[in-house]
Design a protein that fits this description.
By secondary structure, the protein is α/β, with parallel strands linked by helices. It has four domains: 150 residues, Orthogonal Bundle (DNA polymerase, domain 1), CATH 1.10.150; 90 residues, 2-Layer Sandwich (Beta Polymerase, domain 2); 58 residues, DNA polymerase, thumb domain (Beta Polymerase, domain 3); 237 residues, Alpha-Beta Barrel (TIM Barrel). It contains 24 helices and 18 strands. Strands 2-4-7-6-5 form a five-stranded mixed sheet, with helices on both faces. Strands 14-15-16-17-18 form a five-stranded parallel sheet. Strand 16, helix 21 and strand 17 form a beta-alpha-beta unit. It starts with a helix and ends with a helix.
Length: 570
């Protein structure tokens, strides 16, 4: 069955190909708006089509209804097939390069005949791109940097895309005869933002028999490796998986080995060697004697250290801290009391204030913040002063129906190019919590962007700096600025830095979280939810905070709301 994601991707591709063709911008925008509308409705879009109610969805006119219907019924849209035939397939790959929009890609193709990333890279190294009018050396260098970024990201997938597949595979394997334990390991267990494959560990008294059963699992497209204790394969869709099987007595050692990053495992083996021991995935040995361990905690204890949580096993000082018994007590999922940075259908969200509040209440949250976009975000139907005032009235009415949930008023206000804000102070002063974010002019110089963010973080009405680095995983690198200067400004002005839990962002990344804490800045874990389902991303934000060594007290939305508001007001 067609999914909302597949439909949205098809509509978005039509828009891009039309723009490459030089079509009317309004027509192009209609497909982008239609894709966003489909994403907001979610997989219920299929039911809307079956019920003849597609026309009730804002942003989906008659022409889009026909194309969505065609995709649901056949998996194809004739216009998309036609456009694909008219354009070299490599042109779409070029659009993934930062700084290249459809207009520039079309110019490059027309002037140089370039139709793939490899051809473009060659043209840049031959200094041909700068010869096109309006391009120049600076853009050519930026394009080369973008190509390097894409090469480095090749084959990686968002954790949010891989985790459900890994859970499904684990359940399949765990249900096989003879399997005593099965766990997700590798970078997935460490909750890395992007991963290349799935790693599973299995305990079985009959490893070779279990390998044979796994090799015949439903959903495997191709076996790529097969041995007495290991099987590798590709799932349908191309995702790779590796499964390792050992006897139950060796299982803790395998799980530890398969979970730790390369640097962590190397340092751990080095520490074991310093104690006269030998550590591997098969056991901890003193000479030929096996030191038994029924759990990972017992392995670390045998090495004279505290248990190191999986998210910290990256070789960044955690072994030394565990030996000295100074590991932080990491934040846990149940510690979050509230959620900031949530959008509704007043701007570009899918659900009403009432629906979002009910979803927050169902998750056990005690306070919930509404922060739709401000007027500069025209593409997101941002709120001007008049509409924001009207929204505040609705929030007060919804609050009466949810006495157990504190609904906080707010806005996600755009940070303008000079660090000023998109709305005046008199309206911002009426709000409980104000988030300020950069949504434009990402290419400013390091000095300009630093000054812009420091000024915003120091603004008396700004409480949270949203998605501070602006990165989009596998899509856009962070903008260039002095993070430590911004963190110091945030700490000095009681402005929290956001850990945006949206799996496309996960901004801030772990190293910056540690630096923020060192600077004295507080963190807010926010879902940046644009629908009720978006709140499901909060645990991913908690996992990222754990990777950044953060404790409960470092996160403002683990505090009682009175303490949070008092902190911001100071």
């Amino acid at each position: 069955m067609a999914t909302a994601r597949q439909i949205a991707e098809a509509l978005r591709e039509i828009g891009v190909l039309l723009e490459l063709k030089g079509e009317n911008p309004f027509k192009v925008r209609a497909y982008e708006n239609g894709a966003r509308a489909v994403e907001q409705v979610g997989d219920a879009i299929v039911d809307r089509y079956r019920d003849g109610a597609l026309g009730e969805v804002k942003g989906i006119g008659q022409a889009l209804q026909e194309k969505i219907g065609a995709f649901i019924e056949s998996g194809h849209i004739p216009l998309l097939d036609q456009l694909r035939a008219e354009h070299p397939p490599g042109l779409l790959e070029l659009l993934a390069i930062p700084g290249l929009g459809p207009k520039r890609v079309r110019e490059i193709h027309d002037m140089l005949g370039v139709a793939s990333i490899s051809e473009l890279e060659y043209a840049c190294k031959e200094n041909r791109l700068r010869l096109i009018k309006g391009f120049g050396e600076k853009l050519q260098a930026k394009v080369l940097d973008g190509i390097r970024f894409i090469r480095a990201s090749a084959g990686r997938k968002l954790i949010s895309d891989v985790w459900p597949r890994a859970v499904e595979l684990r359940e399949q394997v765990a249900g096989l005869p003879g399997v005593e334990r099965c766990d997700i390991a590798g970078s997935l267990r460490r909750r890395r933002e992007t991963v290349k494959d799935i790693d599973l560990t299995v305990a079985s008294s009959h490893p070779e028999q279990t390998v044979g059963l796994i090799a015949r699992l439903k959903g495997i497209e191709e076996l790529t490796g097969h041995g007495p204790t290991k099987v590798s394969f590709r799932l349908k869709g191309g995702l790779a998986a590796d499964v390792r099987i050992v006897e139950p007595g060796q299982y803790a050692f395998l799980l530890q080995h398969m979970t730790g990053g390369m640097e962590h495992n190397a340092a751990l083996r080095g520490h074991a060697k310093s104690l006269g021991l030998r550590l591997s995935e098969y056991g901890l040995f003193r000479g030929e004697e096996l030191i038994p361990a029924g759990s990972e905690a017992e392995i670390y204890a045998a090495l004279g250290m505290d248990f190191i949580p999986p998210e910290m096993r990256e070789g960044r000082g955690e072994i030394e801290a565990a030996l000295e018994h100074r590991l932080p007590r990491l934040i846990e999922d149940g510690d979050l009391r509230g959620a900031f940075h949530n959008h509704t259908n007043w701007s570009d969200g899918a659900n009403s204030i009432e629906e979002m509040a009910a979803a927050a209440e169902a998750k056990g949250l005690r306070y919930f913040h509404i922060s739709d976009h401000s007027r500069a975000a025209v593409y997101a139907n941002g709120l001007d002063v008049e509409r924001l005032s009207a929204q505040l009235d609705e929030i007060h009415e919804v609050q009466k129906r949810h006495p157990k949930l504190r609904i906080l008023t707010g806005i996600e206000v755009d940070i303008l190019k000079d660090g000023g804000l998109d709305l005046p102070g008199d309206i911002l002063s009426r709000l409980d919590v104000v988030i300020a974010s950069v949504h434009s002019r990402f290419g400013q110089s390091r000095e300009e962007m630093t000054e812009r963010l420091v000024r915003a973080a120091s603004h008396p009405h700004v409480d949270i700096l949203g998605h501070p680095t602006g990165r989009l995983l596998l899509g856009r690198e962070p903008y260039d600025f002095d993070f430590d200067a911004v963190a110091r400004a945030a700490a000095a002005n009681h402005t929290a830095l956001e850990l945006n839990a949206n799996p496309h962002r996960l901004d801030l990344e772990p190293d910056l979280l540690r630096r923020a804490k060192q600077a004295g800045a507080r963190i807010a874990i926010n879902a940046d939810a644009h629908s009720r389902e978006g709140l499901d991303d909060l645990p991913l934000g908690v996992a990222t905070a754990r990777r950044g060594w953060l404790e409960k007290t470092d996160i403002v939305n683990t505090w009682p709301i009175e303490e949070v508001l008092a902190y911001f007001q100071r």
